[in-house]
Amino acid sequence: MASQHHSMLEKDEVAQEVIRNRFSVHLCIWQLHVVYSILEGKDVITIAPTGMGKSLTFWIPLLFTEKSVMTVVVLLKTLGSQFADELNEKLKIPAIMVTKNITDDTLFWDILKLKYCIIIFSPETIVNNPSFEALIQHRPFMRHLLNLTIEEAHTVEEWGSSFQDAYACIGVVHHLMCCCIPIYLASATLPQEIVQALRHHHNIQPDVKIFRLNIDCPNIFLCIKKMEYPANSFHNLTSFLPRDIPPNGPHLKKFLIFFNT
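Now predict its structure.
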């Protein structure tokens, strides 16, 4: 047992050195185990708070494989573009964000020729773009595909059953792939019933690796207050502001207000 533990420590140290040299970061143990599971070809589900470094686990497996490609499905196109910019400029990993407006055949030939290590899609693109269907039926390309990663995976179930039909079809697309491709689902909020639904709709392996971090935020609590004014007036928000604000006083501290979409 001691020998096995020592071997694991050496493995971790070697991996951390590779990651540090390329990304200048030191991973948490849970992040390393996510990376190991992906490299083992496992289906993976990660539930971790925002800001804990889930996205790092998307890219790092590429450091330990040759000629591998990853596909990532993102909720927001702006987030996908930010990912692509960071990967290209900061991390020096060839990446591209493919939107439904890009129908240039040249792009898809570039993808087939492994010009990009990371291809980022919106759900609408992978469901509604015929070129994507051709891509996932191309066996030489699919042999290089490491996994299908879905960011904010809870939206697949929550939005796919209401106003975003494309989200509900992602599981179908996964089934249509000509090769058995592992899937990686990541989110900051995945209740058990959503996890079970995702496992069913995506035919996730029984030996799926699930990493569930503590997402409790003790400094955040719920307070329910009856609205005094019509919702479209926004006057109810004045209760969050100090009653007496000096004209030349200091600026208020920044705060966020979330609205139901």
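The chain has a mean pLDDT of 86.
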